[in-house]
Amino acid sequence: MFENLYDELKQSIRDGNYEKVKEIISIDKDLLNKVSALGSNLRMAARYNQYEICKLLIENGIDIDLVGGVSHDSAIVAATFSGNFDIVRLLMQNGAKLDVSNTRNNPLFVAISGRNVEIAKYLIDAGIDIYATYKIGEIENCDACEWAKKWGTKDVYDYLIEKETADAKLFEVTASTSFESLCKIVKDTKDLYNAGERIICTAKDRRQLIEANAKGVSFSLVQ
Predict the structure, then answer these.
(1) DNA-binding as a keyword (predicted)?
(2) What is the model's pLDDT at position 155?
């Protein structure tokens, strides 16, 4: 029926055939981290909501952050896309990386666009970088908060605003415009200041600049 053992493994994962997956891995453990057009075996298990198989693969030492395939995303992104909180939590408990290098691999963005509030809040509490920004369409600096606003995910938007308001982080602003021009945008706070040749702002100031869609502006966290 199957051309090779790997094809049988993939089908067994999709079907949720725990015993067959366990058997195949015991025969050839090199298949564990093999990647197909559907991505890693763990990604497939997460995408098809196969919690016990995800657990089995992890226990056998699969690379939890392995990406590949057509979608080129990881298991945690697939689990988030499927809205499976239990698998997301399982992956996080086993050290899954929260990749924010682009929107496709950012599980928080996936949770927001899927309107999965429970997973989004869990990822935020787990420490995902809520300040990662991307140029998306006409939005110069689209972070998680702007993304939540764009998708109308109000519960997540409010939760992010609450986190930002309580955050003491400072950001260095790189801008193609003058300090005075930035001050005209940041009207409600005096926290935006010019430190020598550096412009520094709070999370609140940063939010105002992003919401104004200030052009030629980028932010980096002050360590």
Answers:
(1) no
(2) 97
